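Give me the fold.
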Amino acid sequence: MDCRTTTGPQPDTYTILNAVRREVAFTLMPELSSDRARTIATFIDEVLRHLMTRSTIMPELLHRKTAELCDVLSALGGTVDPCPRAESSEQLADLDTALSHALEPLIAQRASAACATTGELSDSICNRAIAAELACIQAETGHEAAQQHRVFADPERYAVTAEKVERYLARAWPDREALRVTHCVRVLGGFSKDTYLVECSWRGGQQGLAIRRDNPYGSVDSTAAGEFSMLRDLTRLGMPVPPPLLLEEDSTTLGFPFFVSRKMPGAPVPNTVSMQVGAAQREAACGLARVLAQLHSLDVDRLEPQSALRIDVAPSGYFEYSIDRLERAWQAHQLTPSPTITSAFAWMRAHVPTFEGHLRLVHGDAGLHNLLMNGAEIGAMLDWEFAHLGEPVEDLVYARMWIDQIMPWAEFLQHYHEHGGPKFSDLHADFYSVFYSVRHVMNTSKGMKGFIASPQPELNCLVGGLRYGRHFLGEVARAITRPPEQP
């Protein structure tokens, strides 16, 4: 398919972007070697392919979507005032936003009524709006995937330097004479904070450290101070987490607040995205079962009364509390209203499970990507920003997206139970699948807003929105819409 358009003597956007991709592939690629640089380059390629799609088929996709949403709005008795005549891509995008805002309260009312009556999202008008949104993102992502794809690379500047870290540590630990930082490198990945690994030495000793620095433009509402407090509590409870050492809330040192923890032994689990299954992945899956069993069996009464891991809600009100909190976050961070997400909140409220048992500690992001493996043993479990008191099935349903690709689910559960994990019931699995997919959409939307607002925007937040935001929006749409009845 030739997506180029005729624009007279000037090259069109599609051709310019494709030329950039070729230069990256054939000029820059041979000069690059680090894993982080090559991964950043895949982000660049993904963004370029997205821009190529926007410059070619997006106007037609928005024409179709807005035409359908106009019909839906009319069927619901609503109007967009004034209704703009949309011709350019920018005007179509504005019309799409205006229609989404106009539809949001009407969809919310219809979806809530349908779910309250039948327990399912059986309203045909709501489903038309969801189908219009889903069709647009499927066509958009399909076009991007059809473009030639390569693994590219690009160098990155480090905002945190060994010199800055050395000066800070020398002040924080004046008893460590002749302290020197010999290594300081940023870790690949992460949508909430910037992470750096540091090696330092002094007269008579040496130590590996990790620095976690706030990113106010990231995808997660989390602070260095909050995570420091959680890690301190979890260390005291005997969990395999990086022991926190120093907290610095002054932004002048490294640009934003940060904390320092001990560097833990082990290495990340390889291939957690493409999931090439081998011995390393099986060992990690068994390790995840063990660490979740340990976490879920902890006595929460051992938490300090002021612990950030506690929540002020009884078990009977836990699900409503969680939905309310997520909906507030969505309202704060959405780029634009979504018929799918609006309907999903109605669906979740119609499918609130009955809480059984006691509130227990859960990780909230229990995937293989948050493990360090030291051989066959867990070196550490990382990234505790989402940790809270909740229901263990939350972590198990979340982890299953990895586990099902590695081993039978029953085998994982057997390992989990053998190490003290409480009984698992999948009665709440559908609820948590929708809940976590909505949370992913919310987080990626926050990251996209941060990309727009940041004075130094980073591609990981943009690509997170393009890759994961649309994926999980599609997951929500498919989960909450009832399949059509067979004649």
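The longest helix spans residues 89-118.
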